[in-house]
Design a protein that fits this description.
about 220 residues, alpha+beta, 9-stranded antiparallel beta sheet, globular, DNA-binding
DNA sequence: ATATCGATTATCT
DNA sequence: GATAATCGATATG
């Protein structure tokens, strides 16, 4: 567990659509420990999900779905288990999974992964040279923009793709790994509805996003 | 048509 | 700790 580079525990089976046909909170909680897989050509890239955030749909001010069903957000309003990919800050793509039944726009943002297979490919995609003993390993996939770059996820390529299908090129699977300790915190990087505890992480994992892996800003309290 | 700002990251002090 | 980079979705005139 220290040296992060662990293979999957066994065969990886795709999650079924029912898994995603639930509230974002439940899906987020249960996605911890699951595996994101990229099958493109011969090389398989995979990484364990270690950090996610729940977005509650049209009534959640922080959710893109709060703007309604537009060309951009239509996947969120569609059936569960599909990829919602958006472009942010002029630089980065981020990956969500649609939840709930069709018509309800809940989703889960994938925020950080722990690389399992295809480390070299991820490093190349990220422009990182992995040296022995360096601290660069978590930088491959610790953050929504970083993991998208490592997996080559873009809007044109992956928005709307079926994450329950092995043949879609991008999917989410289960290798029988079970999360030990789960931690819940407020969501990161948002201004609206920023106080709700909707961020889920595998406690102690080295690939969690944020400046120092853990320490979330405890500042901006002072209001008592 | 133009302005604002964001579910981020890399790089600087 | 602070900020530049960079562009498309959305709001406003």
């Amino acid at each position: 567990m220290q040296s992060s580079v662990c293979p999957p525990l066994g065969p990886i089976r795709p999650l079924d659509r029912e898994f995603f046909a639930r509230t974002p909170r439940r899906v987020a909680r249960d996605l911890l420990g699951k595996i994101l897989v990229r099958d493109s050509g011969k090389v398989r890239i995979s990484a364990r999900i270690v950090e996610v955030e729940a977005y509650l749909g049209q009534n959640d001010p922080a959710a893109h779905a709060s703007a309604g069903n537009t060309a951009r957000t239509s996947v969120l309003f569609g059936p569960p288990g599909y990829a919602y990919v958006y472009f942010i800050y002029g630089n980065h793509y981020c990956l969500n999974v649609s939840c709930e039944q069709e018509g309800k726009a809940g989703s889960v943002l994938i925020r950080a992964l722990e690389p399992l297979e295809g480390i070299e490919e991820m490093a190349r995609a990220r422009g990182i040279v992995l040296r022995h003993g360096s601290q660069d390993f978590p930088k491959l996939t610790s953050g929504p923009g970083r993991l998208a770059e490592a997996f080559g996820i873009t809007r044109t390529r992956d928005n709307g793709c079926d994450l329950t299908s092995r043949t879609s090129g991008l999917w989410i699977g289960d290798d029988a790994f079970r999360a030990k300790r789960i931690q819940i915190t407020p969501r990161i990087g948002i201004s609206k509805a920023a106080d709700h505890p909707l961020r889920y992480i595998l406690a102690g994992n080295k690939c969690i996003s944020g400046p120092k892996n853990s320490r979330q800003r405890l500042k901006t309290h002072s209001k008592a």
